[in-house]
Amino acid sequence: MELTQFSGGQRIERVLEGELSEARERSIMLLLEDCFPDTFSGRIYFQQIPHVRFLLFDGDLLLGQVAVDFRVIRVGKEVVRILGVIDLCVRSEVRRRGYGTVFLHVVAEQARAWRAQHLVLFADRSELYLRNGYAAINPAEVKWLAIEERQSYGLIEGDMTGTLFAKSLFFEPWPEGSIDMLGYLF
Ligand SMILES: CC(C)(COP(=O)(O)OP(=O)(O)OC[C@H]1O[C@@H](n2cnc3c(N)ncnc32)[C@H](O)[C@@H]1OP(=O)(O)O)[C@@H](O)C(=O)NCCC(=O)NCCS
User: Virtual CA dihedral for 81, 100, 54, 24, nearest 10 degrees?
Assistant: First the structure.
């Protein structure tokens, strides 16, 4: 489904993961290799297949992508409906033109449409996210299912303060308390 058309002809499409053609999977693999070298080992997901991707094209050329995971997590006493933002990336030659920001707008629209209460992501750098309405969760004591080399090996608890960011979509504050991801760390 086509969502956004840019004046230069570029477009963002929304694709269910199960409907990706092999050719598209290959383009995503090459893009991820360009953006996250030596990370994906030829796959198009790091630990687990996401639910939906947004793909930015110029003609047939894939310029960028972001994936999302729809789930509930526990924060303290509350169960929160979230959309997880995964592997946002833009091809190196076309960075700093605002595509990353547009992707964040697109996932926020999607999250609101699905009545997710918060967008959630993990990142080492914060600039883009702080500029787009995300805040660092502090403190961020997180429990998650550890997966390594595509094998589960138990639950891990760790302090993710400084790397966990969230954006409220319906003016609800982030609840207090430790965070149980109810699954893997995207
Ligand atoms: C992060 C990324 C998607 C931004 O895409 P973009 O199209 O350049 O984004 P925009 O043009 O909307 O905004 C650019 C701004 O994002 C910020 N930014 C750059 N890299 C960033 C990063 N890794 N994390 C957070 N913010 C970042 C910078 O402030 C940059 O502006 P500046 O260079 O003038 O200071 C792109 O740099 C990228 O693909 N990086 C490699 C993959 C990656 O690290 N992804 C993030 C995973 S959490």
Answer: -140
The CB density around residue 68, as the number of other CB atoms within 10 Å, is: 28
Q: How far apart are CA 184 and CA 107, in angstroms?
A: 20
For ligand 1, residues with CB inside 6 Å are: 35-36, 88-90, 95-101, 123, 125, 127-128
**Cβ–Cβ under 8 Å, residues 117 and 169:** yes
Residue 77 has pLDDT above 80, yes or no: yes
Candidate of 69, 95, 102, 103 to mutate for ligand 1, largest count of ligand atoms within 8 Å of Cβ: 95
- CA gap 5, 12 in Å, rounded: 7
**What is the Cα–Cα distance from 38 to 56, expressed in whole angstroms?**
22
Can you give the pTM of this predicted structure?
0.97
Query: Is residue 116 a contact partner of residue 79, using CB atoms and an 8 Å limit?
Result: no
